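User: My collaborator sent over this chain with a note saying "see what the structure looks like." That's all I know about it. Can you take a look?
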Amino acid sequence: MTARSFRDLIVWQRAFALAEQSCAIADSLRRNRRSGLATQIERAAASIPANIAEGNGRYHRGDYLHHLSIASGSLAELESHLLLAQALERIDREPVHRALGLAREVGRMLGGLIRALRVAPEGRS
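Assistant: Without extra context I'll predict from the sequence alone. Here is the result:
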């Protein structure tokens, strides 16, 4: 079954959930006077589902793969920011732990989608 909308993609749904969790963590960081890190977390987190959606809306596979690559880079950036937040020990570790687990899941799904698009026959992705 082909996804009719980016909203139908499980990877987008999980990335969106990750963005929501990350924004909650960012709110917690702001309460602990870490607004710069909070902003970086929000930007990286929002970029992941946004790039999955934008790539899905493109008509050329190369464009789709390019946006998935950006999403993957933003995911790595988000993980790095979350690890830093955890290392600073200024926030509850459990939400960060859950977000990192979800980030690993999104990473596996993104990798699978990228591999599938690379080997798919030519035509609309």
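A starting point for your reply to your collaborator: The domain at 9-119 is CATH 1.20.1440.60 (de novo design (two linked rop proteins)).
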